[in-house]
Structures are given as C-alpha cells and as structure tokens.
From TrEMBL:
It is found in: Membrane. The keyword tRNA-binding does not apply. Its main location: membrane. InterPro entries: EMP70. Keywords: Membrane, Signal, Transmembrane, Transmembrane helix. Belongs to the nonaspanin (TM9SF) (TC 9.A.2) family. One of its GO terms (biological process) is protein localization to membrane. This is Transmembrane 9 superfamily member.
C-alpha cells in the first residue's frame, strides 16, 4: 500500500469534518437569523397595534401611516423561492427603474390617461371632455407619444394635461379657462357622471390618488362629477354636478446625504364643484380678478355653490370656469415605498399560494387515479395480454385490446378541422409560455399592459411554425392529401375569425367615439403581421411537417371498422365533455379571478411566477384527465377517441365562459347594451383560445397514451 493510499481515508475524514462544521455553522446562523426576524416582526406588529389604537390611518403620507402600510404589505415585499428577501414594491413592480431627481422650480408635466368607468367598458379620451387646452409651457395636447401595438389596441394614450406644475412651487386657486357647452354635450356629460366615469392623471409615473383619512381608503383617479338624490336637492329627479376645480397635493422628499434634488413620493387630488364668478369671454383669465378663486383662499366643496350640469332657465348653454391649485408638502416616505398605497387592499401572496395548493390537490387526486390505471390495472392488463394462455380471460376482464385494429383509425368526422384546432391550440400555448418566461426574466413588465399585449401578439405570430408543423403531422397521419387546404386553414382559421369579430366590434366602438376604437393604420399593422409573418411561418412549419415521415403506430388498422357497442352515460356526448373540462377549469379558478379583476376592474396583476406554476398545473391536469377518459372509453370498446379526447379538455373553455357570466353579475355593474356586448365578445375570444389550448393538450396526450399502451402488448 502506497503512502497516498494510506493518507486517502484521513483526507476523507477531514473533508467530512469540515462539511459537518459548515452545516452546523450555517444551521446556527439560520436559527439566529430566524429569531432576529421573528423579534423584528413582533416589534413591528406591536407598533402597528399601537398606531391602530391611536386611530392612525394607513393611506396618508405621514411616517406613521407609512409604517402601518409597511406592516400590512410585508408579505408582498418578500420575494424569493427558497430564501425570502425583503424588497420594495417599486423594485418588484418596476424592476430596473431608477428614481428621477428634480431641481427646484423645474416644470413637471402632468399626463392625462383614459376617462373610464367600471360600469361600462367604453372609455373615452381626456380631450373628449369639454376641458381646457394645455398651456404652451406644458406642451401640446396633439403631442405624439410612441405607443406600442398593444397600447393602441387597448386605446391607451397619454396626453399632456392643461395643469402647470413646477417643483416646490405651490400656487393657490388658478383659473384655467372658461368653456361654454351646449345641450347635446351637456347630456353626454350627465351620462358620464351617472355611469361614474373617472379621470386618470399621472405625475412622475404616479397615478393620481383620492385619499380619505376618515374612511381610510385611497382610489386611483377622480370622478367627473357626482349625483345628488331628490331628497337632498328637493327636485323631482337626481341632480348632476361637475367637478371643475382640482386641488393637487404633491409630496416630495429631500435627502442631501443620499441624493441631490427632489424626489416625488405622492400625487393626490381633491376635486371640488364650485360655481365660479364668470368673466367676459374675451377677458384674459390670468389678469382677471375672480372673487370665487382668490389666490390666498382654499376652494372647498360647499353645497351652496355646487356647479349643476344643466342649462339656464331659458335654455341658454352652460358656461364652466375650470381652475386648480397645487400644494407641495415634504414627506418622510422614501421613494421606494411610494407604490405601497396603490396596492392597499389587493390580495397578498398567501391567496395565490392557496390557489396553487388548490390546484396541486386536484393534480394529486388525478395523479392517484392515473397511477392506479397505469401501474396497477394497465400493467396487469398488459401482462395478461402477453400470456397467450390467459388471453381469453383477459378479454373478459377488459376490452381495450379488442380494438387494437381500430384504435388508430383516423377520425371519420372532419380530420382537417381536428388537425387545425390542435395546431392552433399548440400555437396559443407556446406563445403564452414564452410570454410568462419573458415576464419572469424581466424582459417585459406585466404592469405595462400595452407592452404585455404586444409581446403576446408578436410571440403568437412567431409561433406560427408550431401550428403548421403539428397540424400537418396530424393531418398526414389521417392519410389526407389536401396539404394546401390544411396549411391555409391553419394560417387563417383562428386569426381570421378573431379579426372579423374585432373589426365588427371596432365599428360600433368608433360610432360611439370610444377611445378603444383603433385606427385603420393599426388594423393594417395587425393584418400585415398576420399575412406577412404568421402565415409564412405556418407554411414553413407545414413544409417540414409534411416532409417528415408519417407517425408510426404499433398496430395495423383493419379495413372494416369495428362495431361500437352501447356506451355508458359518462362516455357519451355531452357528458364526457362536461365531466372532463371541469377539473382543468377548477385548477385555475382562484388565479382566474385575479386575472379577470385586472382585465375588467383595472386592478394590478404582477404575479407571473405564480401564473406560470398554475399554467403548468393546468397542462398536467389536462394530460391526466385526457388519459383517464381515453382509457375508460377504450375499455368500453369504443375506438372513436379522437374528438372525445379533444373535447374532454376543450370544454374547460365553456366553463370559462360560464364563469364570465357569473363575474358579470357578481362583480361588474355594466350599464348599457354596448358595454355588455364588448365584455361578452372579448370573453368569448378568450374562452375559445383557452379551450383550443386545453383541447390540443388533451388530444396529443391521448395520442401518446394509446401509442404507448398498444406498443407494450403483443398483437397478432
């Protein structure tokens, strides 16, 4: 034995001792860190309870309110898979965005977004309102801002507002302009007030907030006006009032030892309705003396001076004088915590974790059922089928081998439609997975809905080759020869249907002047993406799909189809689809509620990691449901499994549409015929896409399952 061989065990023991010491040290430090975190959390909770007992609200820009928000939102700020690290919401919502420092008296533009309402999905542009044109120092309302394709399709547009703001330069009541509106425009304004439309402004990327310390709430935007009931006004009908004065409060932070300049940490508004003293139409408002708008006085809401939205006693037009005021207040809230108040009341990560646990429980249930089939029943069947002596007994026990000569018979009903639907569903799934991966990798920001929609569209277009390849491979297996028809149908079926519906809906939206109506140039852009990029890629995928060899199967197909006996109720239409689609839909129900709230209730959704996990669970659920349903069908000697395997999972889209009906009645308060049509049109599109994705997984997994089990038995 050499000296090196003698020293090898000693080196190994030294290495093991070193590893043991490292494990002990890391464990002790972890325990110590855990104790420190628990102690810090206990202290924060004690401070939170004390502040709450003192009646401190959690929406103000004070240090006490910021401490309460920090405790209430502590779970949202803990990110990480194994090790939870504390992060600010600004870094979570807008990764890589650095704060902007302003100099004293530097002009800061206020941008106007859409005027929208939860009661209707028909938003309008800011300058559709009878509002003042922007001042020259603010820029032009016609200024061009670069918008993504998704932003154009959603009607998102940022324009410079008429309000002039300079850093740390407070100003009292400042008149803007005087506008006269006729009876037609007046009726439209009353309609906006009745349907609770809200104006959205942004300053330094911060949406404007309305806060109430007394009621402890904060909402984005401010209403166009308000309604007073007859028992308040003494009139026979409701009276409508307009908010024509805005009191802006901008909070900022200065920290000379950390940064230079001023950082904006809050943007609040308090709308006021007031009947100003009118001036001559040719007079210069900046030089006119208006008693109701003194620079030293604070304009407040007074029932005696509300501005009603109605014409004069003799029917003359209504003249409105708009004004605003700005107050700058120093705040102790850091720039990194300025987004905390915007997510107050949103569900934290625990709710998303519960949704994942709910989905995992469904998957475990299905896994148990599938394992019972694959490990016990199916293995025993295969073992018995391979025993020639027990072949007769095995036929009495189960009948799935009896259809080995027909199980791979191409579908008798429209193989073209089946292959196109499967290829399109695969394309949808590919684009969604790539979008989620890009969001997790911070390539796109889900807080920017326009950029996210743009990414989905481009990734869907670039995934056209996936649809062409899968559709052509499946169509070739069905012994079909019309490859041109298959390729063209794959390229135009779903995009053509969606484009047609979108164009018809766009005509109605343009007729009512909605901001979501897109221009002809945007429509041409989408059309060019479809015809010049997506369609050629589908042809490329189809070329390689038809060039590939036909998919090989382990059994030969008989010339005459086998008779299908009477099936159990759960294997017949529509019950097989109703049963099969429920569990895939149930696995995403909780997360679906948050997505619907982000789409229709203008809430924030940024949990892309959770969404990817739920997406994977959905796919696993579809695979297992399809396998179980196909096995039960084959045991009933029914070899016509193609369309049933597709609809057993595609019916999840039907459940999604039913869920949209519940969401409409329970969460939305849509008013009018067109908003309901818009809602159902878009939800129908989403439900069809969701059903195609689930159906493609169901058919492909059933195809794999049948090839696997029939390849494991000996067939004469």
């Amino acid at each position: 034995m050499t000296m090196e061989d003698q020293q090898r065990p000693q080196r190994l023991r030294s290495l093991l001792r070193l590893c043991l010491v490292l494990i002990v040290v890391s464990t002790v430090s972890a325990i110590g860190g855990r104790k420190e975190r628990k102690q810090a959390e206990a202290e924060a909770r004690q401070k939170y309870v004390e502040l709450k007992q003192e009646g401190i609200d959690s929406v103000s820009n004070t240090a006490e309110s910021a401490a309460m928000r920090a405790y209430e939102m502590r779970k949202k700020k803990k990110k990480g898979f194994l090790v939870k690290k504390e992060k600010s919401l600004s870094s979570v919502l807008f990764p890589g965005v650095s704060p902007v420092e302003y100099e004293d008296s530097e002009p800061v533009p206020i941008f106007a977004e859409l005027v929208e309402s939860r009661k209707t999905q028909v938003p309008y542009k800011f300058y559709d309102l009878p509002i003042c044109e922007p001042m020259e120092e603010n820029g032009s309302a016609k200024a061009k801002f670069k918008r993504s394709l998704g932003a154009k399709l959603q009607g998102q547009a940022s324009v410079v507002s008429p309000y002039s703001v300079s850093v740390k330069s407070s100003k009292g009541c400042t008149p803007l302009c005087q506008i006269t509106i006729g009876s037609k425009k007046l009726r439209w304004m009353r309609k906006l007030v009745e349907r609770q439309y809200q104006v959205h402004l942004t300053l330094d990327s911060l949406p404007v907030l309305m806060r109430s310390k007394e009621l402890n709430y904060a909402v984005r935007g401010f209403p166009v006006g308000f309604t007073a009931p007859p028992n308040y006004t003494g009139l026979k009908e409701d009276e409508y009032y307009l908010y024509n004065h805005l009191r802006f409060t901008i909070t900022y932070r200065e920290q000379a030892d950390e940064f230079e300049g001023v950082r904006i940490t809050g943007f609040d508004v308090h709308p006021v309705s007031i009947q100003h003293d009118l001036v001559d139409s040719n007079a210069d408002l900046s030089r006119s003396s208006i008693a109701s708008c003194g620079s030293d006085s604070i304009v407040r809401n007074d029932p005696e001076s509300y501005l009603p939205l109605r014409t004069g006693p003799t029917g003359e037009p209504l003249t409105i004088l708009y004004s605003y005021s700005v107050e700058w207040q120093e705040s102790h809230v850091p720039w990194s915590d300025r987004w905390d108040v915007y997510l107050m009341g949103n569900p934290d990560d625990d709710v998303h974790v519960l949704s994942i646990i709910n989905a995992i429980m469904i998957v475990l249930f299905l896994t148990g059922s599938t394992a019972t089939i694959m490990v016990r029943t199916l293995r025993n069947d295969i073992a018995l089928y391979n025993e020639l002596d027990d072949l007769e007994d095995s036929q009495e026990e189960t009948g799935w081998k009896l259809v080995h000569g027909d199980v791979f018979r191409p579908p008798s009903t429209s193989p073209l439609l089946l292959s196109v639907a499967t290829g399109t569903g695969a394309q949808i799934g590919t684009s969604l997975i790539l979008t989620l991966i890009c969001a997790i990798l911070k390539i796109i920001n889900p807080m920017n809905k326009g950029a996210t929609l743009t990414a989905i569209i481009f990734l869907y277009v670039l995934s056209g080759s996936v649809a062409g390849y899968i559709s052509s491979r499946l169509y070739k297996f069905c012994d079909a020869k019309a490859w041109k028809r298959n390729t063209i149908a794959t390229a135009i079926a779903l995009p053509g249907a969606l484009m047609t519906v979108f164009l018809v809906l766009n005509i109605f939206l343009a007729f009512v002047g909605a901001a979501t109506s897109v221009s002809i140039f945007t429509i041409i852009s989408v059309f060019l993406l479809w015809t010049c990029i997506s369609t050629p890629l589908v042809f490329v995928g189809s070329y390689f799909g038809f060039r590939a060899e036909r998919i090989q199967v382990p059994t030969k197909t008989n010339q005459i189809a086998r008779f299908v006996p009477e099936q159990q109720w759960h294997s017949r239409y529509p019950w097989c689809a109703i049963i099969g689609g429920f569990l895939p839909f149930a696995s995403v129900t909780v997360e679906l509620f948050f997505i619907m709230s982000a789409l229709w209730l203008h809430q924030y959704y940024y949990m892309m990691g959770f969404l990817l996990v739920v997406f994977i669970i959905l796919g696993v659920t579809c695979v297992q449901i399809s396998v179980v349903m196909t096995y039960v069908q084959l045991c009933g000697e029914n070899h016509r499994w193609w369309w049933k395997s597709f609809f057993s999972c595609a019916s999840a889209g039907f459940y999604l549409f039913l869920y949209s009906l519940w969401f409409l009645t329970a969460k939305l308060e849509l008013v009018g015929f067109l908003p309901i049509v818009v809602y159902f049109t878009y939800m129908l599109m989403i439900s069809v896409a969701f059903g195609l994705f689930c159906g493609s997984i169901g058919l492909l997994s059933s195809f794999w399952f049948t090839r696997t089990i029939y390849g494991a038995v000996k067939v004469d």
